[in-house]
Fold this sequence. Notes:
- By secondary structure, this protein is mainly alpha-helical.
- It has a single domain (about 5-340), classed as ABC transporter involved in vitamin B12 uptake, BtuC, CATH 1.10.3470.
- It is about 75% helix and about 0% strand.
- It is built from 14 helices and two strands, in the order αααααββααααααααα.
- A two-stranded antiparallel sheet has the order 1-2.
- Helix 5 crosses helix 6 and helix 5 packs across helix 11.
Amino acid sequence: MHDGSKRRYAALLAAGTGLLLVTMYVSLSNGAFDMSVKDVFGTLLRIDPQPDLDLVILEFRLPRIVIAALVGAGLGIAGAAVQGVTRNGLADPGILGINAGAGAAMVVFLFFFQGHSTSTGWVPVLAMPMFGLAGGVIAALLIYGFARTNGRLEPQRLLLTGIAVGSGLGAVSLYLTLKMNAKDFEMAAVWTAGSIYNANWKYVVTMLPWLAALIPVIVRKSYVLDLLQLDESSARSVGVDTEKEKAALLLSGIGIVGACVAVSGGVGFIGLMAPHIARRLVGLTHARMVPVCGIAGALLVMASDWIGRVALAPSEVPVGIVVAIIGVPYFVYLLYRQKRKG
């Protein structure tokens, strides 16, 4: 990267960070209970703490904003890994059924722990990402197995296989939710739609180890994602163990998705949109693209959550529905563009 390119990239990262901070402030200060700049900064900096402001900002809004940022960043980076491994610009953890696998596992968790699903204890909170990861891995293994021919992953078959597996796992989730009691059914239905309305600091602590461990793996292997855009023989000729690297990257992406789905439910399309936005901004090099994917994903989820919270106040639209309203037309646009290229 020459000096001019480095400066532009640094300016882009700075602009993205600035947009994140602005979005965070708008989300903190606006809602059913509006606050001034003085109220927000006085509470955060502990200059003039007040019990009612502490409750709204520190217990309700701030953990929700932090989780939205973490979920968006995680799904965006996982989407970059999945698209890089499959060499398919339409690949996305949600569309491929990985979200559905993690979601089905979470519904199983809620079903067998009825009456404990809203527990504030650490054990159920810490167990949720494990169930999400297990479900995502099972879904990925099914998709990977059906999409392979002659020992190789066929990107052309991957999308249809993912849709089929995702639909089947979605049916399992629906069946189990119908067997739940009324209280757990309501929670599962809202959670399945993609919602972070019940965010708290325990969920933040639960997510952080997974993201801190797995996101650096994808960042370190960004050069491998570049090499995987070549055909299999070319990648092997430069010393890349393609199957091993694909497995490591996919498993890292699945772990991130599992942790995100465990606390936010079925938020789709972020892993599809964020990589495309990043490519338009910084090009195809994954070392530059992956961080921008994280910023773009965080902005999308934070903004969507704020829109869902204030658009129909005092009612609330789950963040997954708001993202889908944006994501479905974008997916159709990408399909149309690929058809024209073909």
